[in-house]
Amino acid sequence: MTNNVKTIGQFVADDYRTATVFETYGIDFCCKGNKTIDEVCEAKGINKQELIQKIKDATSSSSNTGTDYKTWPLDLLADYIEKKHHRYVEEKTPIIKQYLEKICSVHGGHHPELFEIKDLFFQSTGELAAHMKKEELILFPFIRKLVAAKQTDVAPQAGFGSVQNPIKMMMHEHDNEGERFRRIAELTQNYTPPSDACNTYKVTFAFIKEFEDDLHLHIHLENNILFPSSIEMEESFVKS
Description:
Layout: H1 8-14, H2 18-24, H3 37-44, H4 48-59, H5 74-107, H6 113-149, H7 164-187, H8 199-239
Helix pairs in contact: 1-8, 5-6, 5-8, 6-7, 7-8
């Protein structure tokens, strides 16, 4: 696969060190990770050769400190996403909500954009809570059944038909959250606190930025590795 047709998501799936490069250029590698280098460079006015060189520099180190999630068994990857990223969302959501309530109360008069930021975050985490339950109760158990079924080569059956059906829904919901956080980043000037921000204000923005970064990796692992590999595994039963 040449660099011209390889998608951003595939670059990051192959070597997560490229994620930092794409983030530097404001390139979405999770929800919009199906774009090619040519497409994002044209859309954002980025120098293509410069971007490719940055990718080469980031991946030329002999010691790859990034984790190669593509080599993980799918059931292990599903477990990891659930225990690390789902748990992170559950633990951080009430903390960030509390901080947002506080800075809206204290600073909302001079910074009315805080109320939209709060509403967007509350909407996003409410949707994420329901989204993660659907994965934990429906999609991930079926993926584990797919892995177990490879031992017998008998395809598991599901009430939703193909695994592609819930995956399509999950990816659509990922897109929605990506749009919400793009709006939050815009409203916060990429999480830059204003000159009159108190420490609580600064900590709140730092927490939301960390939350978004974790969500990017979370969605990347699903959209670019777990989901396509699960579809491929299901299709392998049909071919065998």
